[in-house]
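One example copied in:
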Amino acid sequence: MGVKTNELKRIQARLNQEFSKEGRKLIFWYDEGGKFLEIVNNLDIDAKIYKLQKDNTFATKVLLEIEDTESNYLIYADFEMPKHVDNHLADTILYSTVFKPDLLSLFMNEAGIDPKFRHVLEQYKKFFDAADRRQKFLDLHIDRFNSAQTIEVAIMSVICKCYTASYDEVVKTVLTDSLEKNQYLKEFNKYEILNTFWQHAQIHYGYFEDNPTLEKFVIALLITYTAHKLPVEVKAFEKHLCAKKGNVTTFISNFMNNVLCKELYDSLARRVAQSLNIEKVVGALETTELLSFDTFECVDRDLI
């Protein structure tokens, strides 16, 4: 079952608290988009649960005010509350209770996210609207949310189907798809976290472009790694360098030596080598200066 147990229990407890008060209780719950429908279907409360439809408001009024005037009811609707002038139930709602669960507060409590980061979750509300994405976020088992960046990396990790929350893993996954029409970047854009992806490229690797693209990003990573390994400076590399050479070197070293990523890395490296005409760029270097050069296959062949 996709329902989060703690989330269900908290909502259930709040509703039962209302229904335990003296007198008959009618509670209206308008849930636009049906975000809580699965929870409603699994509620165990001291009341009847009635599913309101847009075209049965008059029949509902007859039920609540004529046919059954004794029972407690939770009246649930998976749409926005209509304006009173258009609503047959307007007068009934006025003497009843309108229930509005705070989804973000419930989720933050369960995930162990400090309330001071609520604005971060609100920024990515579209992502957190779905129960399955909230569950996958929790399944990353992050021990401590001590920054907005931690939450953002977790969101990107869920979108990329990573098993752990890691920006390095996010980048590796993104690079498995086309550099031009990348499905992961489309998903980032859908959930309004694409700009954040590029901000993290600057945070983690010191990569910055006014108009970043995956191709320019890959070039910057590989050239920064190469420049860091070479004992001499290559002027043609300067415009492609990232600011955080150590982080880039660690990432590329892990990437190129990972057996599962070997074919992907070789493919990207060949593309960059061809794009920048790497053989010509390093042609003026001494053989001894190229001994630590392990970025591009074409240079390895020349050395051999």
The mean pLDDT is 89. The first strand starts at residue 26 and ends at 30.
